[in-house]
Predict the 3D structure of the following.
Amino acid sequence: MAKADIGLWGLAVMGQNLVLNMEGKGFTVAVFNRTTQKTKDFATDRAKGKNIIAAYQLKDFIDSLAKPRKLMLMVKAGKPVDMIIEQILPYLDKGDLVIDGGNSYFEDTIRRHNLLNEKGLLYIGTGISGGEAGALEGPSIMPGGSKAAYAAVEPILTSIAAQVDSQPCCTYIGDDGAGHFVKMVHNGIEYADMQLICEAYYLMKNALGLTARQMQEVFADWAKGALNSYLIEITADILSKKDSETGNPLVEMILDKAGQKGTGTWTSQTALELGVTAPTITEAVFARCISAIKQERIEASKQLAGPAGKYTGNKKEFIEAIQDGLYASKICSYAQGFALMTAAAKQYGWHLDFGEIASIWRAGCIIRAQFLNRIKDAFARNSNLTNLLLDDYFKDAVQKAQNNWRKVVSTAAELGIAAPAFSSALNYFDSYRSQRLSANMIQAQRDYFGAHTYERIDKEGSFHTEWQKI
């Protein structure tokens, strides 16, 4: 019996679609799932008649793989990954490769990489973005591990990845946890991108009183220009959908209570640990958190008053202002994400190619956008770019958008409309461009109450002042 080129453990829809993608590219795939019935259902339905080997016992699954074995895990992050690794270790030989295709925390991936490396096994933490459709049609893939591990599976991963200009949206990211780190940052940027778009929608709805149909036309128009992206396109589609029961726009019938799976929180926590400013990403996480306390907000709305007016100026001009503010804020959120990756590369000794990372995000993934070509070009011009805001294109774009951006943020504040991501992005920009901030007062306060010392602007050294006589 012919052996499989690769095996996949985990047959939820994402796993099934990856299997079908691999098989469609000419690879024989073995499949296994903890729940036997799920394997049977897949084998007799979507996998029927294809070069897919269904295994119902772990030993049979491992034995069905050609050596050196390649085994991909598509299971929930955390303990399930460790439990599966523990189960398969007795069956593996030196040189075999384990691929974690889930959204694992990058430090867990570093630990697992080191554990398997000590046993002579290869391990790749592989970020995969694109959702269920991307898994089937071509996702963006971010593999991290040893170069030898990547070389062993590169033909498969590059074959199933999305393509842009005949180039796969898959590249070697870096050692141990680098792939999962970059996927985590991708998701953090995704949080910010989504929140910014939602605030643009919220402003048009509440400040301008636009209908869903009118907003759909605005987003459809934006999708033709610099803001062109998957998220802008699906927002236009969402606004066109009617609820079959009420006839109202479906989006207005959906409870304003957002869920999250943790990658945005990990991004924010990691930014804090590495001392990197990522306020727009973090505000996007907080926005989901405050949306979750729906009942509490209902009660608060009955007791806490604020402005309740509408924008009285030219609506078309304000829509253009929102467009400019959205683009400038988007630039800042990506700047924060890439600054975080820069800091992580230094901390963990990774050699990240930021132009390549931007390139593989151009298709397949959730944040895919025309905008990413600009980022790719920015790092092509200067591979040591410290912040996207310092690239000529982005610097000019933000300068041109600045007046409108400020108009949107100030108008939102005056009308009492929450726009935390827009505001945080503007504050990030204003802080980053400021030669002198208020931190001198913080240092004085710290020295006053805790003798933490401070530095001076006119001479080297560490200083302490006796601020009060005891």
Observations:
- The radius of gyration is 25 Å.
- The longest strand covers residues 122-129.
